[in-house]
Amino acid sequence: MNQEKLSETLVTNIYEHPFGERTKLLLRLEIIFKQAITYRCCRDQYETQMCLNALFALLNLTKRYELRSVFLQELERVNTILVQLQNSDKVNAEKIRQTCEKITTCKKILHGLDSKHIERMRNIDFLKAIKLRNIHETGTYLFEIPELQYWLLQDAGQRERQVKTWLEDFEPFRATADYLLYLLRDSAKSQSLVAQSGIYIKAVDTRSTTNQLLRINIKEYQTIYPSVSGDGYRYVIRFMERNDIDTKPVQTSKSVCFELSDCGI
Q1: What is the pTM of this model?
Q2: Number of domain units in the chain
């Protein structure tokens, strides 16, 4: 599997812009887990390196953030909002009930998570040696880490089983992040809009839920992409045009038709 395959896996025609560190964290985790899953077979040096890079990113994030606490807080926040909506005639009460049950299941799994497994993984000499040397732009040099070269000479199935064991400790985080992102993306319907002269400005009613994520679809335009500034209360979308990768992008003067989802719970 090559870099082109990863691009096919991760890139869509919907541009997403997060507001707030928590949403950014969820999106980072989604990309890292997709990379780990894409390359977990570890059939050659490239796949092994890409998978280990994802593993190191997960170790870094779990050290930087107390993910279990962050996720439990977010699940509780979403659950509280859904319970308040349960008696409204405007919502599907059965769907909310099922969502609350799923949230309860996620919370139970997180409460039962043994973080000592991840901590022990940080102290595996083999991984520590690779991570220490994993600073070159072109990747790890085998002559610096003979134990990695030795590992690459072993059966690929053996490497895959070992990597699967390491990644299993992060599975509760992957499942929870995926579900929270599913709820967030599903929280808004897309609107068909037009950005006159390539710019769209919106101020959000502060009495409503703050936007956590913008989803922008401009699939009909191959040379235009959106650039977002602002926050969840007021934001500006400028549609930038770049005909050549070597030229500086400029805001298009065209009227751009696009679809927008203001996602927030």
Answers
A1: 0.88
A2: 2
